Inverse folding.
């Protein structure tokens, strides 16, 4: 097993790329040729709240990452909202515009129970519990070969260690750039943070065990991304002035009300200002900046909205992503 111990998402991009370049072999997949590490990979991230990528060649879409987390917290499996921010996702939806394996839906309602609340209640009652588990796999439904959306991440396990909440993700197959070191490290660690804050714990180690870590050989700009990620680590978390992540919950806010407002956020108009601090100061300006930009607003107007983002890391990533396109 290959083990990677990293501080945060930017270092994961750097070290994971090196591991792929040094050890990956060519293989087939149902979606074309891949480079895959021929054994399971274990990844430990010590500071999972530092989850934003800044590499200009990798060019991660911060708007999609933020909106996908909100969509997951809403418990939605409907394609309409999220495909606005990533149109490529529509190919995984079924003919009714539904994602069969949507993580947030499986976390909250799919199995007939709210697994997020169950985990919080379990650890609140017994911090030494070994039963704090969230599952995303439905053996019956996910065995259907016709399904376009079978969960790659299968199980989440939580453990309290020295006042911190650790989370372990079990993964059957993970594309490194778009999945593990892209969208997954954002929404998974934000779920970890939400549960930790609900229990008045600090955020501990984020661990991923993936059985098949790979990259697609025909991925656009793959050679340039691999070269960029190994040559220079773009990490504002590491250098002064240090970038500080913004907590998901403010004083007096709780996860149940937060998740309820995430559901409302999917259909909010611009006049509907969220009550929860993170939604109001991060998700709200990012949503409307993205929409007015797509509608043809002047660059200065878009930038004026982005200037109201309250989280330093998401603000920096959003400005950079827009500027790369406008210049």
């Amino acid at each position: 097993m290959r083990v990677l111990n990293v501080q945060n998402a930017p270092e994961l991009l750097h070290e994971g790329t090196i591991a792929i370049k040094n050890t990956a072999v060519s293989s087939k997949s149902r979606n074309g040729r891949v480079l895959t590490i021929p054994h399971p990979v274990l990844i430990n991230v010590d500071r999972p709240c530092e989850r934003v990528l800044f590499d200009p060649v990798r060019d991660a879409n911060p708007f999609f990452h933020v909106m996908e987390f909100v969509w997951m917290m809403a418990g939605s499996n409907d394609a309409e909202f999220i495909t606005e921010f990533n149109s490529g996702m529509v190919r995984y939806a079924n003919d009714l515009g539904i994602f069969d394996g949507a993580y947030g839906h499986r976390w909250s309602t799919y199995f007939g129970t709210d697994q997020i609340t169950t985990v919080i209640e379990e650890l609140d009652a017994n911090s030494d519990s070994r039963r704090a588990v969230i599952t995303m796999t439905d053996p019956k439904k996910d065995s259907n070969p016709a399904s376009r959306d079978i969960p790659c991440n299968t199980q989440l396990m939580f453990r309290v260690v020295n006042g911190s909440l650790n989370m372990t993700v079990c993964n059957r197959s993970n594309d490194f750039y778009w999945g593990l070191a892209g969208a997954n490290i954002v929404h998974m660690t934000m779920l970890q943070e939400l549960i930790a804050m609900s229990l008045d714990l600090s955020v501990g180690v984020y661990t991923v065990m993936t059985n098949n870590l790979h990259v697609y050989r025909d991925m656009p700009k793959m050679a340039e991304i691999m070269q960029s990620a190994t040559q220079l680590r773009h990490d504002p978390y590491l250098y002064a002035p240090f970038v500080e992540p913004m907590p998901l919950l403010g004083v007096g806010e709780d996860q149940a009300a937060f998740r309820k407002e995430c559901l409302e956020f999917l259909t909010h108009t611009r006049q509907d200002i969220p009550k929860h601090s993170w939604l109001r100061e991060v998700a709200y300006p990012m949503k409307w900046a993205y929409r007015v930009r797509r509608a043809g607003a002047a660059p200065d107007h878009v930038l004026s909205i982005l200037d109201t983002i309250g989280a330093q890391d998401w603000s920096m990533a959003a400005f950079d992503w827009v500027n790369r396109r406008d210049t």
In short: The radius of gyration is 19 Å. The mean pLDDT is 96.
